[in-house]
Amino acid sequence: MVFLLLLLLHMLTLYTLSVFSGASAATHYNCNGPLVATLPHSSFQSSSQSSVSYAAYNAKLNRRDGAGGWSPMVTDQEPWLQVDLREQMEVTAVATQGRYDSWDWVSSYLLLYSDTGRAWKQYRHEDGVGRFVGNVNSEAVVQNKLSHPVRTRFLRFVPRDWNPSGWMGLRVEVYGCSYKSYMADFDGRSSLLYRFNQKSMSTVKDVISLRFRSHQAEGVLLHGEGQRGDYITLELHQGRLDLYLNLDDSRLRFSSGRVAVSVGSLLDDQHWHSVHIERFNKQVNLTVDSHTQHFQTKGEGHSLEVDYELSFGGIPLPGKPGTFLRKNFHGCMENLYYNGINIIDLAKRRKPQIHSVGNVTFSCSQPQLVACTFLSSSSSFLSLPSAASATGGFSVRFQFRTWNPDGLLLFVQLSPEPQRLVLQISNSRLYLTLHSSGRQKSEVSAATSVNLAVHSGRRVEQTCSNPETLKTGVNTTPTSHRVNNGLWHSVSLDTKNLQITLTVDGEPSSAIELWEQLESRGNFYFGGCPTTDCQHLTPAFQGCMRLIFINRQPKDLNQAQQGLLGNYNELQFDTCNIRDRCLPNLCEHGGRCSQTWSSFSCDCSGTGYSGATCHNSIYESSCEAYKLIGSSSGFYSIDPDGSGPLGPTQVYCNMTEEKVWTVLAHNSTAPVTVQGSSLLKPHIMKFNYSASAEELQAIVSGSEQCQQEVVYDCKRSRLFNTKESIWNAASFYQESSYLYFPTLQAELASDISFYFKTSAPSGVFLENLGLKDFIRVELSSPSAVTFSFDVGNGPVVLSMKSHLPLNDRQWHYVRAERNVKEASLQVDQLPLRFLEAPADGHPRLRLSSQLFVGGTASQQRGFLGCIRTLTVNGVSFDLEERAKMTPGVSSGCPGYCSGSSSLCHNRGRCIEKSNGYVCDCSQSAYGGTTCDQEVSVSFDMESSVTYTFQEPFSVMQNRSSQASSVSTESSSRAREDVAFSFVTSQKPAMLLTVSTFNQQYIAVILAKNGSLQIWYHLQTDRSPDVFSPALNNLADGRLHRIRIHRVGKNLYVQIDQDIHTKYTLSSDAELILIRSLTLGKVTRRENFNEKVMEAASKGFSGCLSSVQFNHVAPLKAALTNRGSSLVTIRGPLVQSNCGALAESTSHTLQDQTVTANKDKEKHGNGTQKDLAVIAGVVTAVVFIAVCALAVISRLLYQQRRAQRSSSIKEETRHSVYTDYRTELHLHNSVRDNMKEYYI
After folding, report:
1. What residues does the Fibrinogen C-terminal domain cover (predicted)?
2. What span, in angstroms and rounded, lies between the C-alpha atoms of 923 and 1226?
3. Secondary structure (DSSP) of 770-838
4. Nearest 5°: phi and psi at 1064?
5. Of 5, 541, 590, 822, which is the most buried if we count CB atoms within 10 A?
6. Residue 279: how many CA atoms within 13 Å on its side-chain side?
7. From its phi and psi, is residue 222 left (phi > 0), alpha (psi between -120 and 50) or beta?
């Protein structure tokens, strides 16, 4: 019965909400009537007009009055057309038309709206784009529907582009309807109390809606609480809306335990914002404007129990009228509804349920604080004249808000000359600097004769005997808090009583003591400066300013806009056009968003992902992928769905000769005794794996074989049977054929990867269309792949051309990615190509058709050949299953290299032949027919191998990377992969160094105690980063395998089969213009640290094997390209076998131990002759056996060496690519997303 009742309540709630939504939709459906056609002439205003016949009142749609529309003067720098709708209206659409029978029209424009005609806000679509598409001729009407309606009285059309062969011409119409408004004005000391009919009110469901407007960033809008611990509080905090909600949990009653759900940003902009709260039991939807948060409440209960009353506008203190616990709301509320009750209407009609505290009025009379926007970080400024001060000196006050960490706020020239005062933001803090001469400023020190009041309010007195030192200049301490957080900050600057004081946000002031009274000279420059005295003070301020006072006199910015006061450049008046680019947060996988005025960036540290929006996983997708890049068995983190929603999980990769097993541990590995188990009462155990259920499913689905085993004392049982292998491949043999899948879910980000082989010169790999948007990847020519798309900013084409043909019937890899920051394309091992997205363009890719693979909707330019392993956002597409039911397409692909088994190892590439296959090992540090034989070289202390990176390719690559990179920490594309094995007994020793033309370097050394040290020197003005991942002695004569992988600031190190260890670098800078890589002794003078230099001079004595740096294999290059200008060899260099050498060294250590024990036994037991005789016999036998073993080992070693030499010659003779210089520089490996085995 209880379940049925809850179900009925749930159905009733859904029905009620649907009816409410339906009514709202019906209202909006009818809200499309014309609002401009009947307006009088006085409702139209403009910035200027060419003549009377071009006046603003002629700008009605389809009218031919006057000159047939509005046109501004040619000299008008900021033209606009304004319409007064005479009262608040709900606007749903606008339409434009050119001037009648002319060449004058507007092709794009901005739309601003305002309640009073003073403070304006720019309308933006849901995707953040502010421009509207205008006209292409003078007669056609172009209507733009608003994605979210606005309620306003004034509209302003601001032309941005027009007919280049004519001029601006505009006729307009606005569509919408009137609406009923209930308004209340709160002055910051008032509130409305809604009192219940009973002692307390308990509700399972609540619906609260309101609209508000305020110029303050703090204030309580709603509050209620109950004695059992329930509470609800809605308040503005730092311009965001915070909701505190708790159900029946007294522990969270006090503010220290409260957790807020925050929505919105910049809500103190004096414009209307809508709020809607829906709660059913513990589920809550909080919507502010178009942004919604879904969450579950704290506490144990399902109902909200509030005692006595709900307060709106503040939290009054019981028994103390006019006293409030928190800062009250200061602004206007409109259409305030609580569970269907119109609170403002009840208050206006003085109903007894409503009690008014303070002065609440029922109209919105809040003052409109007019702001201006500084648009350019290089050329914006506002110059205002100074007014005479009656008390001497001068004073300046203003408010500002910005996201930028640097910018000039104020520049004032002073008298007596040549002193000047500078107020600027630097590194997010506020600095005030007094320059007393033409020389550069100096920091406050004991040599300056000043008294300095620091920000905390303490006073530090510093004196000196020579007053002339004041001429070097003085700099105050910065403010203690960041001022680039997007909030309004007030600044007050005063010079009086031989003192300059700076006050920020009403906190204790900072001061500079003066020797003489200073006066202002000339104009005051805000935000920037055009004169030669201050042009070097860049960047200019980008942000908003308002309430500017000079010598306590307010400055009318309208006069500045009309040219009647001062001068300006690159300013937008009557609006603060600030945007929060981190709302919504477009950083994926928990990336942290930060922003400047014009862009945002993502900090991906600690997320396991990288890229401009934290889209790409830094981990491989499987154990098979780790094996393909040369890793051995061990613990690894894998990300089974790549860039998909699933996070990384830790597994053990057991890499055997034939298969790769992925082992996931659980929490029940200890033996469990089972007693009394039967069919009726079975013994039940729960296993908690190290991965989630979704991650387990993804890993299992990508595996060829799955086993879950339980070991009994009496038998071994398999719970799951082996499933058949599925290799996602399809062959297309008709140009009109294609496979279709559901529409791509790729609005904000998508990555597409696949392999293909073909003999056709062109063809479309995949295509998905929308109404106007599209995305397409195709083979555009025999040697070029093209990635194209359109998100509403016009078609974007990104092409990658290969120096080798791509229609050679061999497998080729393609990866295309697009997000709101950039697009990229990779083909095989060629360097990635990047293209940045426009900062204010459309971010969303809106698709509606099916996804076509291997063809297009028009059945033209279809692909002929094979496609396999198609993956989009980490999701693999089952091509084979879809191909079974599609004409012209067959499952699978013919050829040896199409199977799921790894025929070529360690980054080797499988190449089809007419009667078989060969492995191209040119990108691998290994050799042999299947790239599985290590390439090893023995060094002595004078030996070295130096690989020189080819010039112009390396220069071009890095310049290209620099040009396309974003200057933010999180979007760095810095990446290195280093892997090698070594055997040595020397310490200290130099293993590997990489140096650049910019004095950067990487060094891997063994320290004096034999421990491994990794040195990264990425920024020459800082000390290098040093990491010691292994403190034990690695100079022990045993074989050790090292793998180093860097992405940005994150460094991952694996030694032998240990788990990866993560370190954090101090910088994510890239290696710019790599010069050389050296193994062994370094003879060139470098700017190495002293410890690195010591190891470099000692060189390396031992064996190095399978050395790989990114896609360069220097040891292999040294052996196969002797005489090449890329490789320099110094000292003796002998091909060897590190594994055999380590085994030989191990035997030698054992021999030494046996000999030492023999000597000890002989000296310690000289009196026991029988034991001595026995020991002598045993020693002789052991000695003979060791000698025989050494001889056999030497013969086997020589035979194996001869085989290796023959193998290398055979490999060189049959190499597909003979020019190793080009192949060594190919960038980014081909990583097969292979099927694998799973335990």
Report:
1. 614-666
2. 8
3. -SS-EEEEEEEETTEEEEEEESSS--EEEEEE-SS-S-SSS-EEEEEEEESSEEEEEETTSPPEEEEPP
4. -120, 125
5. 541
6. 25
7. beta
Tell me the residue type at 324: F
Task: State how far the Cα of 509 lies from the Cα of 475, in Å rounded to an integer.
Answer: 14
CA dihedral (567, 571, 575, 578) positive or negative: negative
Strands 121-122 and 106-114: antiparallel
Residues 1211, 1116 contacting (CB under 8 angstroms): no
Sorted by sequence, the CB contacts under 8 Å of residue 481 that are 6+ apart come out as 429
This prediction has a pTM of 0.71
* Phi and psi angles of residue 829, each rounded to the nearest 5 degrees, phi first: -100, 10
Please, which residues bridge with residue 171 across strands? Answer: 97
517 three-class SS = coil
> Closest Cα to residue 517, out of 423, 447, 419, 441?
419
Here the tokens at position 42 are: 């006085």
CA distance 139 to 1213: 74
Which conformational region is residue 464 in: left (phi greater than 0), alpha (psi within -120 to 50 degrees), or beta?
beta
Instruction: State both tokens at 1217.
Output: 């690519």
d(CA 1156, CA 607): 54
Asked if residue 430 lies in contact with residue 475, where contact means CB atoms within 8 angstroms, the answer is: no
Q: Which of 834, 829, 789 is nearest to 806 (CA)?
A: 829
Whole-Å CA distances, 1123 to 489, 616, 808? 67, 41, 32
Query: Quick one: which of 545, 733, 783, 749 has its CA closest to 645?
Result: 749
User: Could you give the CA distance from residue 354 to residue 361 in angstroms, rounded to a whole number?
Assistant: 14
Report how far residue 913's alpha carbon sits from residue 809's, in angstroms, rounded to the nearest whole number. 9
What 3-state DSSP class applies to 993? strand
Residue type, 576: C
- As to burial, measured by CB atoms within 10 angstroms (0-12 exposed, 13-18 middle, 19+ buried), residue 920 is buried
> Token pair for residue 537?
């003070």
Q: Report the alpha-carbon distance of residue 363 to residue 183 in Å, rounded.
A: 5
Pairing of strands 703-706, 1236-1238: parallel
Secondary structure (3-state) at 197: strand
Specify the residue for token string 């001497």.
392
Element (H, E) at 1014: strand 1012-1017
The residue type at 1027: F
The single residue listed with the structure tokens 């058709």 is 849
If you search the block for the tokens 């000391």, which residue do you land on? 189
Give exposure, 729-748, as e/b (b: 16+ Cβ within 10 Å).
bbbbeebebbbebeebebeb
Q: What percentage of the chain's residues is helix, strand, coil (to nearest 5)?
A: 15, 40, 45
Tokens of 458: 């303490």
The two three-digit tokens of residue 817, written as one number: 């990615």
CA 1147, CA 1141: separation in Å to the nearest integer? 10
Q: Name which of 200, 271, 265 is nearest 230 in CA terms.
A: 200
Beta strand 304-312 with 142-162 is: unpaired
Q: What is the mean pLDDT of each run of 10 residues along the chain (1239 residues)?
A: 35 36 44 94 95 95 93 92 95 96 96 90 86 94 94 95 95 94 93 90 93 93 89 93 84 58 92 95 93 86 89 78 72 95 95 92 82 92 84 89 95 86 92 72 30 30 31 46 92 88 89 83 91 74 95 90 90 91 92 93 91 91 82 87 88 83 81 74 80 83 67 42 55 92 92 94 95 94 96 93 92 93 91 87 91 88 92 90 92 74 77 75 83 89 88 38 33 75 93 91 94 92 90 91 87 82 87 90 84 92 91 86 82 84 59 48 44 50 59 55 43 33 31 35
Q: Which two tokens stand for residue 355?
A: 């009690």
Residue type, 94: V
